[in-house]
Amino acid sequence: MYPKICAAAIHEIDALKLKSKGIKGVIVDLDNTLVSSKSEHLTEEVRDWVERIKKEGISLCIVSNNWQKKGKKIAKILDVPIVMFAFKPRKRGFKTAMRIIGTKRHETAVIGDQIFTDILGANRLMLLPILVEPLNLNEPIQTRFLRVLEYRFVNRFHEKDIEWM
Ligand SMILES: [Mg+2]
């Protein structure tokens, strides 16, 4: 359930540090990680971060439980592959992404804003789990409910060996 790394936002994650950990591929969540769940607007910071990651030779793949057109649009703009309908925390979407980018488990990190989908899924496959703060907190009630549960875990983070970026 626990992340290995935490960051305030995706663009705070250092490409060189990922590289030094042997990471060659990063699976990225869409909603509230790359863009707000309420919009399709990519910030300059996120675009720059994607370019930095690519420049370091790290492959990217978006894996989203979302099924809307928005995902394909964002993937096209960023020029990265996307796996939709992923049903995270199920393993299938993550495995498909690793096949697309051609990385092994120990070379793959997962970046997302939700413990019960992104982080749990990453841990089930022994991928490097990285938790970021969600971009938009005005979410549907089901997601908010999950977050209340998540915060109980977050409160215990200080007891764990978690790196902050
Ligand atoms: Mg998300």
TrEMBL record:
SUPFAM superfamilies: HAD-like (SSF56784). Pfam families: PGP_phosphatase. CDD domains: HAD_BsYqeG-like. It comes from the Bacteria. GO terms for cellular component: cytoplasm. The keyword Amino-acid biosynthesis does not apply. GO terms for molecular function: phosphatidylglycerophosphatase activity. The keyword DNA-binding does not apply. Keywords: Hydrolase. This is Putative hydrolase of the HAD superfamily.
